[in-house]
Amino acid sequence: MLFRRVLAQLSTRPKSSLVSANTVLHFDEIPSPKGLPLVGTTLALIAHGSTPKLHDYVDKRHKQLGPIFKEKLGPVSAVFVADPDEIRAVFDHEGKHPLHVLPDAWVAYNQMYGCPRGLFFMDGANWWYHRRIMNRLLLKGDFRWIEGACECVSDKLIDSLMGESDYCGNLEATLYKWSLDVIVSILLGSGSYSQLCGELEPKVQKLAQVTHLVFQTSAKLALIPASFASKFKIPQWRRFVDSVDNALAQANALVDTLIEKKPHSDGLLPKLLAEQITLEDIKRIIVDLVLAAGDTTAVAMEWMLYLVAKSPQIQEKLRRNPDFVKHVFKETLRLYPVAPFLTRILPEDAILGGYGVPKGTLVVMSIYTSGRDGRYFKNPGLFQPERWDRKDEFYSSEMKKASLPFAMGLRACVGRKVAETQLQMTLLKIVNKFEVELGNQREVEIVLKMVAVPSEPLLLKFKKL
Ligand code: HEM
Question: How far is the CA of 292 from the centre of ligand 1 (A)?
């Protein structure tokens, strides 16, 4: 009951109300850890485990310095917030064409090699023009075509798991391939996909291998300014450039093949070709959809399987009540948000946490921390999917503002519906065919390699029911 009262107080709290509105504090007064002139607190981060442990480092900083602090980490100076009300305040100030931060190395690559990219990299009116079309195609209307496209690919995954008698050989690669197959099926539509998937198999397989490498090589550059890495062509930069060259070449080759096939069905590609978008832009958008979808959904599936494998009761509940999968999905991404940080560059002055924050400031929002906020979630570290049931004693409509795995506002994930459909549908199919068993002896932790991946390979056994 105490928990309910705290939630009630929180919901009546005005926005950015850590101090009253007439005592706005100066930006310089935002708590900040002591650091060295050039490198800031980078050494403290390195001592904490470096960028693979950034989510935990920032979480500890919030516990030490409060809901808002500023810090210079590597090449980046930012204001960090984790309080759900302050996160909301940032999105209220994101403007008409929200700006997020792109990995330094990716921006440098695109500039050096004159390589314009898709939605994730677009800005301003050009971004909004294409984003509105993609919203209409992927987030509005009837979603049966998305379900159809996900259905045939999940069935293919189940068939391949049927052949596994022991721990699944390379779960990471299997799921990576599955998530790229879903995107190809979304692009072609289920009818054309079923006809062409055999022929496309080697290209998708190759793409799965190379895109995965892009995430690994760019994670290695996270703390090194791209201007330095590219000027001196250090080995990490060369490996990164090779991986991006390769991934873009493979993705473009796949998209060319898909366009040549002239799919007539209900896929995204024929819909895009009917819009007022140049072929060049369509290709860029699709290449980036493939890159944005690959890692995120594959890793989210790994975390869902990890969590349900720990609990035969939850698997049984999913078999009895398929609707429960929605709660399992939300609870997984609350605890293991694949993209644990959201960023915005403020287009106007704002008040955050009672401090005046000037236009142009980079704000980093830790949804790893907000999703584990004990004021919103009772026993925040525990996996309890039932907490998302409206009838649950501890449910509150406030919970959803603290857990934002797909972000919010105009620039939120455009693939959310695709991700929800493919992850929920596939999990249900898996638990209805198999008992999933976990072989890892230790608690698996989050490690950041651009996205939040498991700290060790998952050992999962799929025992036929
Ligand atoms: C569990 C799976 C996924 C998660 C957790 C996720 C998360 C996110 C987040 C947090 C953002 C917002 C970044 C920001 O606000 O700055 C984003 C953007 C984006 N996502 Fe996803 N995503 C997922 C799956 C997908 C899929 C399946 C697709 C493609 C079908 C996709 C395509 C994109 C694109 C293109 C953007 C950039 C949108 C823009 O800048 O307008 N995502 N995603």
Answer: 6
Amino acid at 297: T
Question: pLDDT, tens digit, for every residue of 75-95?
Answer: 788 999 999 999 999 999 999
Q: How far is the CA of 442 from the centre of ligand 1 (A)?
A: 31
φ, ψ dihedrals at 340, nearest 5°: -75, -10
Spatial contact of 154 and 429, defined as CB atoms under 8 Å apart: yes
> Which residues touch 366 (CB under 8 Å, ≥6 apart)?
55, 58, 59, 62, 80, 81, 82, 340, 341
Nearest-CA residue for atom 11 of ligand 1? 413
Q: Answer yes or no: is 413 a known binding residue.
A: yes
Q: What is the C-alpha separation between 177 and 250, in angstroms, rounded?
A: 14
Is the per-residue pLDDT at 21 higher than 60? Answer: no
pTM > 0.90: yes
Tokens standing for residue 12: 């009546």
Query: What's the length of the chain?
Result: 465
Q: How far is the CA of 1 from the centre of ligand 1 (A)?
A: 37
DSSP string, 277-330: --HHHHHHHHHHHHHHHHHHHHHHHHHHHHHHHT-HHHHHHHHH-GGGHHHHHH
Ligand 1 contact via 248 beta carbon (within 6 Å):
no
Write the single-letter amino acid at 19: V
What class has domain 102-340+380-397+409-464? mainly alpha
Calculate how far, in angstroms, residue 343's C-alpha sits from the geometric centre of ligand 1. 13
Average pLDDT, the chain: 90
* Tokens found for residue 118: 């898709």
16 sits in which H/E element:
none
Closest Cα to atom 30 of ligand 1: 415
Amino acid code (one letter) for 43:
L
Residue 302: predicted pLDDT: 98
Q: DSSP of 88-130, one letter per residue?
A: HHHHHTS-SS------HHHHHHHHHTT----GGG--HHHHHHH
Non-local (6+) Cβ contacts of 55 within 8 A are: 340, 341, 366, 368, 369, 446, 448, 452
Query: Nearest CA to 215 among 124, 310, 103?
Result: 103
Query: What does the domain layout of the chain look like in residue ranges?
Result: 102-340+380-397+409-464
Who contacts 190 (Cβ-Cβ below 8 Å, separation ≥6)? Answer: 145, 148, 149, 151, 152, 265, 266
